[in-house]
Structure formats: C-alpha cells, structure tokens
C-alpha cells in the first residue's frame, strides 16, 4: 500500500547516514531523567516511539556541566560513569530500528538554582535566581564541556547531538543584545555575540569526527525585545553550517516571551513561514517546528518546500505510533495532541513527571501496562465522557466485553462544550479518535440510553463503572432563578441568547472558557495572519526579535469575570497556558475582579460587595460558572443491590473539569479490573 504522505516518508540522506523519513521527535524533558531508575523508564519511552517509526529522536535536555543544569539535581553528562545509563536508551532505540540524538542544554540564566551563570548579570523575569556573569575562563571551559558531553554521548551510542541554541537558554543569551551586555570579545558586535555558538560547534565537530549528526537549534524568532534581526539569524545559520552542523532545527520564542508559541490557541504550523524563509538561505536540511500535529499539516509543509523535516514533540507523547499510522494511511486513528500542556509542560515546570492528557501511558510505558485478560468479564460503563471512553476502550482491548451507555446523542461528554471555545478546536480531534477506537476495540455503544439501577443490576454484568460526570453547582443567592440568570450549560450546550453586558460568577477554567466564548466573534486560531497580528508576530521581520506592537481586539460584549477568592483571577489555570488566557481576555477588555461577595440578582443586574462596599453591575445577563458536583446518584442504589461498582472521572471527584485525571483514572482501572 502506498502512503498518501509521499514527502513525509521520503528518506533523508545526510551523506554518512540516512534517516528513513522526515519526522524528527522534538526534545522534551520528561522528569524521568532525574528519577531513580529513570533511564530504564526513559529507554521504554523512547523505544516505543522508535517502534512507532520516528525518523530521528532528540532527547530532553542534558547539561554539559553542573552550572548548566535545569535544577540542582538536573541531568548532566560530564563523567565517564554517566555513559552506562545513557547506553540503556540508545540500545533500546536501536533495537527498534530508530536513531537518536542527545540534546545538550546549558540553561544559563534559566537555571533554577543559585549557581547559574550567563553572559551578563541580568535576572530572567521567570526565575528568582540572578546569574553570575561568566568570566572568559568559564566561557572557554564551557565550550570544552559541550565537546566533552558530545564525545560521551557518542560513547553512549547516540547517533548525534542537538545543541540547544534557542528558547532563551545560554547560547541564545550570548547571541542577543537583550541579555548580552559584555564589552569583551564575547559581546558587543554580532560577530562577538555569535562567537560562543560557533566555537561550540567547531569543538564538538572536532571531538566527534565527521560521521556524527550535529543538530543546531537556531532561534529563528526570539519574540522578545532586543532579540536578533533577520539578517543576524541568517548570518548565524550560515556560520554554524560552515562550522560543521548537519541539520538546522527551528527555535521559536523564548520562555519569557509574551507571545504564545505552542498552546492550543496557536494556529497549526503558525511558524512554518520563518523556517521556509531561512531554508532558502542555507544548504543543509532545515526542520519546521511548533503546532504540527497531523500528517496532513506535516505533508503540506514538506510539499510546499517550507522545510526538509518536521519536528513533533507532544504529538508523539499523545500517540507513539503516529508515524506508523500515517504510513498506513490511518490518520483517523491517530490520538491527536490537543496542545493543552496540562500533563506535559505543566508537570515539568512543577518538577513532576511528564505524561499526556489524552495518553496517560506516556512516560509510564513500563508501569501502566495493559495485558490480555485471563478471563473476560461483562462490564457496563455509564457515561461516554473522557473517563468512560478511556476505560471502555482499554478494557475492551484487554479482552473484556464492554457495553457503554450514555443519555446523550453523541460521545464526548464535557469535551463537546470545550470544543466550541475559540482556541480549543483541537478537542474535536479527541472525540474523532475515540469514535474510531470504540469501533476498533469492539465496545458496544448505546447512545440516547439512560440507565437505572434496575437496568444495570439485571443486565448480568460482572462490574459496573460509573463515569457519569458532573452537574453544575447551584448557588443560593437571592434572585438566582431570575430570567436573566443562565448556567454555563445554557450557554455552551443549549446556546440560549446572552445579552450585551454579562457578569460571570466563577473564574475557574469554565469561567475563562465562557468568557472567551462570549467575547470572540470568530476564532483567530483558524487564521494564522490574523493571529500573528493580534499577538504582534512580525512576519515581515522588520523589527528585532520578529516582534511588533500587538493589534487591538474587538469584543462583541462587555464582560465581568468574578470570583469569591481574593487570589489573582486565573491563578489556578495551567502554569504554561494560564497567562495566555488572562492576556487574551485582557485584550478584549474583560474586567477580572477578585474578592467578590454576591448579594443578589435583580432585573437591574448583579449586586456585589467588594471590600465592604456594595455596588451594582448593570448587566443584561448573569452566567453561573461556579463549579460542579459529582453526578453519582446511581452509585448508592447499585451498591444496595450488591453490584460491584466503580466511580471514575467527575463522578468520583468534581473539581475543575479535569480530563487529565479522568482519563488517567479510566486507564488505571482498566489495567487492573
């Protein structure tokens, strides 16, 4: 069978070696690098992606020395005895027919410890630790440490290394006038600022010889004030190519940039244009990155000549067999990354092990194991939201006979509301994936089918799993039943009319979603040009760092987002995406108010009290987004009838709508039942 993705599956000849396709698995720190026996788990993690057909894997960042570590106990490759654990990874990947490079990452001023160093003593806005300015001796030693790390990586069996020169880490800090205020030969002119990158590549090439892949992560768009110019990006690209680099990988934005680069509201392939522009100036293969999550998007980038390879990181967390499925023309069966960041980046920045919201087995390949059952059970699952879907598919794939019931006319549960939010269009993909997986796993699906305790207890089931989700919490406020009061389901499910001036009670994830829904006429996520203007991405590259003034956004409504807590509004949102949601609503003039006491609703609007002062918000509509309660009325009735019953997802814990926990609970129960 011929694949539909001809460009994606064309081999790439690097001269001394060949990559079997054009997919590079981008670098991701997983947290396993620092865990006890973590490299055994890392080996299983990378081997699964190699088995899935990836052309070239790049590991998470490994520091060349102590000061460059991500954290005090961050992973480092600097001693001969470090080699053995890395060899576990390379041997596992090679056994599956894959190739793997180790990323060498010196964090510079992003190091989360007090021993950090940088070109100049300038503290990063996202880090409490101020770095020490490096002496020339330290700079020269660091160059040697990069070469040493590359040589040790070669001894460990890696096929190459990636040198992290972007995202605002040490090398990038030297290159940009924003962070390099030196007056010696390592600062000032661009020639001096780029010297560290070039000398590192030269030293690595000399240490490892000619037949070893060197990928350089080139910051093509810094997206910060006083970043590099386009001409400087090209000059550096040509210089590192001349110094011995094999492949140029794109780097987009610094971690401190106020432009989102990978969250779900960023359009697919939003930055492939800059890779295409740079590629025209270079002669070695160039890799496109960021928000490439389907084979169709990847194929178009390659077919249009925008890049020689495509990098996907989180999409290969979501589905390790992405490449193999695409090669078999089974794109509809790919578990698509929805770019939520909740279980991957958010976990890493909280010093927890990374995983994936839609694939809880990611980074748990050797622990969350699904073996065929010795004896099949008849299992009823009530609720076809994320928890019920994951459990039903996993249990059926193990060999159980599964009936899945839902009172709605479609599967998806709360995802059917999330997919309507501008910027969350990717949630459609998860529902599509589960629809196909239900068929393949043989789950018997019964929609428009509400079950009673009598139905389930008389159905001959060995186990009943309740994934019945949540119901909105009701508030006890005078006037809460007025006609001008709606619940979030009235808005997102029933599409009831909403006035021009709106007060939202509750500023958790649901409140933010409803605010986004009510203030957006059409989603900029579906239009790259419009999105770039809104966030100030300069596609003409006339400004340093590719950054220009952000465009103003129009909102069709005036919205007040209110919460009882006195903490910052939105403080509980995702660590790596919450700021995007806050900034988006701020652009649209949404007023966010904390420390609110709700007094009453009248025909005039919502009466509130803040710091002892009562005031009227003269709104047309009040929307209640104040949390949920578990929907578990079947549970007690089934237990009384002696039925073996399990609660998962929102029916178990109705905190903020937590699909990450719900899907993981479904998977873990399916593995053990």
TrEMBL record:
GO function terms (MF aspect): 2,4-dienoyl-CoA reductase (NADPH) activity; FMN binding; iron-sulfur cluster binding; metal ion binding
Positions of the FAD/NAD(P)-binding domain: 378-645
Organism placement in taxonomy: Bacteria, Pseudomonadati, Pseudomonadota, Gammaproteobacteria, Alteromonadales
One Pfam assignment: Pyr_redox_2
UniProt-listed GO biological process terms: fatty acid beta-oxidation, unsaturated, even number, reductase/isomerase pathway
Keywords in alphabetical order: Flavoprotein, FMN, Iron, Iron-sulfur, Metal-binding, Oxidoreductase
CDD domains in UniProt: DCR_FMN
InterPro entries: Aldolase_TIM (IPR013785), FAD/NAD-bd_sf (IPR036188), FAD/NAD-binding_dom (IPR023753), NADH:flavin_oxidoreductase (IPR051793), OxRdtase_FMN_N (IPR001155)
Keyword Iron-sulfur included in the entry's annotation: yes
Protein name: NADPH-dependent 2,4-dienoyl-CoA reductase
Principal EC category: oxidoreductase
Enzyme Commission no: 1.3.1.34
């Amino acid at each position: 069978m011929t694949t539909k993705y001809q460009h994606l599956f064309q081999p790439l000849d690097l001269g001394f070696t060949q990559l079997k396709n054009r997919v590079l698995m981008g670098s991701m720190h997983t947290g396993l690098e620092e865990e006890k026996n973590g490299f055994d788990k890392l080996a299983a993690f990378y081997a699964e992606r190699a088995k899935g057909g990836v052309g070239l894997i790049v590991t998470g960042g490994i520091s060349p020395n102590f000061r460059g570590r991500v954290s005090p106990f961050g992973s480092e490759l600097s001693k001969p005895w470090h080699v053995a654990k890395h060899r576990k990874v390379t041997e596992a990947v090679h056994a599956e027919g894959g190739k793997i490079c180790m990323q060498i990452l010196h964090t510079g001023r992003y190091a989360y410890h007090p021993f950090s160093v940088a070109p100049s003593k300038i503290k990063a806005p996202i880090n409490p630790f101020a770095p020490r300015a490096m002496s020339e001796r330290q700079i020269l030693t660091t160059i040697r440490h990069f070469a040493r790390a590359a040589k040790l990586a070669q001894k460990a069996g890696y096929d190459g290394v990636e040198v992290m020169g972007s995202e605002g880490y040490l090398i990038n800090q030297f290159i940009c006038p924003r962070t390099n205020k030196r007056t010696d030969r390592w600062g000032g002119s661009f020639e001096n600022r780029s010297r560290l990158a070039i000398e590192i590549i030269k030293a690595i090439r000399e240490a490892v010889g000619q037949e070893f892949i060197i990928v350089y992560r080139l910051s093509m768009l810094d997206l910060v004030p006083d970043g590099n110019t386009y001409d400087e990006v090209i000059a550096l690209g040509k210089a590192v190519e001349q110094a011995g680099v094999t492949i140029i990988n794109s780097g987009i934005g610094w971690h401190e940039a106020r432009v989102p680069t990978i969250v779900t509201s960023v359009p697919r392939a939003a930055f492939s244009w800059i890779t295409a522009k740079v590629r025209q100036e270079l002669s070695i293969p160039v890799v496109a990155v960021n928000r490439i999550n389907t084979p169709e998007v990847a194929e178009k980038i390659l077919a249009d000549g925008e890049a020689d390879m495509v990098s996907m990181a989180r999409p290969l967390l979501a589905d390790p067999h992405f490449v193999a499925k695409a090669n078999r023309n089974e794109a509809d069966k790919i578990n698509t990354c929805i770019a939520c960041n909740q279980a991957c980046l958010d976990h890493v920045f909280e010093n927890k092990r990374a995983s994936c919201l839609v694939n809880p087995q990611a980074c748990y390949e050797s622990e969350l194991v699904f073996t065929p059952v010795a004896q099949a059970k008849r299992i009823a699952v009530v609720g076809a939201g994320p928890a019920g879907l994951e459990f039903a598919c996993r249990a059926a794939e193990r060999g159980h006979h599964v009936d899945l019931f839902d009172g709605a006319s479609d599967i998806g549960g709360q995802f059917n509301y999330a997919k309507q939010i501008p910027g969350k269009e990717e949630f459609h993909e998860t529902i599509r994936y589960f629809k196909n997986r239900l068929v393949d796993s043989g789950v018997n699906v019964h929609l428009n089918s509400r079950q009673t305790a009598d139905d389930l207890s008389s159905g001959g089931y060995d186990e009943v799993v309740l994934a019945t989700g949540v119901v909105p919490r009701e508030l006890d406020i005078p006037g809460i039943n007025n006609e001008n009061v709606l619940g979030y389901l009235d808005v997102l499910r029933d599409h009831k009319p909403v006035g021009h001036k709106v007060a939202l009670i509750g500023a958790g994830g649901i409140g933010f979603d409803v605010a986004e829904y009510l203030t957006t006429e059409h989603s900029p996520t579906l239009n790259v040009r419009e999105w770039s203007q809104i966030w100030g991405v300069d596609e003409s590259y006339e400004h340093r760092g590719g950054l220009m003034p952000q465009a103003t956004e129009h909102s069709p409504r005036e919205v007040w987002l209110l919460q009882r807590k006195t903490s910052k509004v939105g403080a509980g949102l995702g660590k790596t995406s919450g700021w995007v949601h806050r900034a988006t609503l701020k652009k649209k003039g949404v007023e966010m108010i904390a420390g609110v006491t709700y007094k009453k609703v009248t025909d005039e609007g919502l009466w509130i009290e803040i710091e002892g002062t009562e005031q009227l918000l003269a709104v047309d509509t009040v929307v209640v987004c104040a949390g949920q309660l578990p929907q578990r009325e079947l549970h007690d009735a089934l237990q009384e009838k002696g039925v073996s019953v399990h609660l998962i997802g929102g029916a178990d814990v109705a905190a903020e709508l937590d699909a990450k926990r719900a899907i993981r609970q479904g998977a873990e129960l399916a593995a053990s039942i």
